[in-house]
Amino acid sequence: MTSAVIELSDIEYTFPGRGICLSGLNFHLHEGERVGLFGPNGAGKTTMLHILMGLLHPQRGEVRLFGRTMADGRAFDEARLRIGFLFQNSDDQLFCPTVLDDVAFGPLNQGLSPDEARQRATEALTTVGLSGFEDYVPYRLSGGEKKLVALATILSMRPEVLVLDEPTTGLSPESRERLVSILAGLPMARLVVSHEPDFLAATTDTLLALRDGRIVPGRLAPHSHVHVHEEGDIPHQH
Amino acid sequence: MATIDQSLAHGDSIIHTMDPRVRLGCAVLLTVTTALLHWLPPALLALATGAGLTLLAGLRPQTVIRRLAVVNVFIVFLWIFLPFSVPLAAQGEPVLRLGPLAASRAGVDLALLITVKSNAIVLTLLALMATIPMQDLGPAMQRLKVPEKLCHILLFTYRYLFVIHQEYRTMRRAMAARGFTPGTNRHTYRAVAWLMGMLLVRSWDRAERVHSAMRCRGFRGRFHSMARFTVSARDVMLLAGCTAMAAAFIWLETTRRGLA
Prior knowledge:
Chain A is an alpha/beta fold. Chain A is built from 8 helices and 10 strands. Chain A has helices spanning 45-52, 73-80, 90-93, 99-109, 114-127, 143-155, 173-184, 197-203; strands at 4-15, 19-30, 34-38, 60-65, 68-69, 83-86, 161-165, 189-194, 206-211, 214-217. Chain A has a 6-stranded mixed sheet with strand order 6-7-8-3-9-10, with helices on both faces. In chain A, a hairpin with a 2-residue loop joins strand 4 (60-65) and strand 5 (68-69). In chain A, helix 4 (99-109) crosses helix 5 and helix 4 (99-109) packs parallel to helix 6 (143-155). The longest helix of chain A is centred in the middle third of the chain and has 14 residues, at 114-127. Chain A is globular. In chain A, 44% of the residues are buried. Helix content of chain B is 70%, strand content 2%. Chain B starts with 19 loop residues before the first helix and ends with a helix. Chain B has a two-stranded antiparallel ribbon with strand order 1-2. Chain B is an all-alpha fold. Chains A and B meet through helix 3, helix 4 and helix 5 of A and helix 5, helix 6 and helix 7 of B.
C-alpha cells in the first residue's frame, strides 16, 4: 500500500447556527489514487475540501497531509504548495491583469525566479491547450476558458495531488469534454468532487459519496432506460 | 461600463517605451510642483510641458480632448462663481457688473490660474500615467516602494470592479423582472439601500473566497512580480528633463515672491 497523501480522521464541523454539517467523517487518498466524491448540493462537499486545505478549522478531528499532522497554519502553508486546489468559481481564483501573471503567481510564491515561473506558466498553458493566451485578460475569457486557465494556475505549481471542487459548474458540454480529456492526461493523484456521476465516472476510478455528514462507498444501483427507435418492437440486437 | 478602458495604454511612442517607474516618478514630480504654483507664467510653462509630453506620447487627439472636457466641466462652475465671490481689491474697479453683483479682477485671475493648472496636471498624467498598462503599474509602484497595501488595493479594484458591476446588474435585472421601477418614494430608497447592502455583503464574501484561493497557491502577503524594468539612456533624459522643468516652475514661483 502506498502512503496516504490526504487523511481526514473523525472530522466534525458545525456551521454556527446551522447545525451539524460533517460528523465522524473519515477519508484518505493515497498516491496515484483517483477518487470521485459524489454528494447532493448542500451535503458539505466544499466544506470538507476547505477543511483539508486548512481554510476552515474543524471543531474535532485531525487532518494529515503527506504524512504530517497539520497542527497549525504554518504546516498548512507548506502543504498547500504541494496540492493543486481548483475552486468552484474561476472568478475567485483568477485575479491578475493577465493570464500569464495569474498562471505564474503560484510558481513565484514557491520561490522560483521570474524566468522559471514564466517557463512553468507557458508549459501549464500548453497542457490545457491554451498556449498563446498569455496576454489575455482573465475576466474577458469565456467560462470554459476561465476554468482551463484556473486549472493551469495550479498545474504550473506541479502539484502532487489535484483537488477539484465541482469543476463542471457552468461549463458547456464542449468545455466539459475538453476538461475530461485534459484530466485523462494528468498522472497525479486526484480527488474530484461533483454532483455529476457521469463526470466522476469519466475522470476517476473509485466513487465515494458524502451522506449525512460522512463518507460512504458509492452505491451500485441498477436503473433502466426507455429506448425508442423506428420499428423498435421487432426483435433485434444492439 | 462593460470593461475598464485602457485605450491610452497601448502605443509605441517614445513615452510608451519608457520605463514605467521613470514615468511614474516624472508624473509625481511634475504634478506636485504644478499644484503648488500661485503665479500664471510658471503655470503656463507647466501647461506647455504637459502638452509637449502629450504630443510625444502620440495620444489620439479625440481621446485627449474628451478626457480634458470632463475636467473642464467642473472648471466652468469656477468661472461662474469665483469672479463674484473673490472680493474686489481696495478701490478696484469691477470687471463686470450684473445688477448688485460685481465681478472682481482677482476672481477672474484665480479662475484662470486654476484652469491652466488643472489642464496642465491632466495632460501630464495622461501622457505619463495613462500610458502605463495596468499590469506594469502595480509592479512599478511596488519597486518605487509605494506601500504594499496601496498596490493591492489598486490591483484588486481594477480586477473586481467589473465582476462587482456585473453582480449589480444581475440584481438590478432581477428587481426589474419583479416589476421594480425606481421612483422618488420610500419603497425605492429602501430597495436601493438593500441592493447596495447586498452588494457590499457579496463583495465581502467574494474577497474572502479570493483570499482563500490565493492562500491555496502559496500567497503570504507579498506579490512577486515577473515584470522586468530597465532604465535606458532615454529614461534618464526624460527624468532629467522633467526634473529641470519642475525646478524651473519652482524657480519662477520663488523669483516672483522675491519681487513682491
